[in-house]
Design goal:
single chain; elongated; 12 strands; 29% strand; alpha/beta
């Protein structure tokens, strides 16, 4: 009888350890994406940024979204970046950057100096 009890006890401990590992050990998924609500600098390498609302800003003195770190994903999620100022909606000066799902209108009266997205030095950059 003791032998069966020992096997049952070890089985119970094994199941407990397995459940603990499944429930409490990180699964390798990174932190949730970082939300962006206003014009800003995106400076964390390897981060995923999501635009969470439209940006209408006629007071900017530079590009609205500046990406200076490599391996960044910036997803506008279909939102708009708009300004009558003649600056870039998104300025990228880093490698391996993805900018996607953006609707960008910059500059008044179609000024050729206002860019929706400006890539400074193209290295592994994807825009769609």
């Amino acid at each position: 009888m003791k032998r069966g009890l020992v096997k049952f006890t070890f089985l119970g401990i094994g199941i407990f350890i397995l459940l603990f590992l499944i429930l409490f050990i990180p699964n390798g998924k990174s932190n949730p994406d970082t939300g962006v609500t206003n014009c800003t600098n995106l400076t964390i390498a390897g981060e995923r940024y999501n635009l969470t609302n439209d940006i209408y800003n006629n007071q900017i003195a530079d590009a609205c979204i500046n990406i200076f770190s490599p391996n960044v994903i910036f997803d506008c999620q279909g939102h708009y970046i708009f300004s009558i100022k003649n600056y870039s909606g998104v300025y990228v000066n880093a490698s391996n950057v993805t900018v996607r799902n953006c609707n960008i209108t910059m500059g008044s009266l179609g000024n050729a100096n206002a860019n929706g997205i400006y890539f400074n030095g193209l290295l592994n950059i994807v825009a769609n």
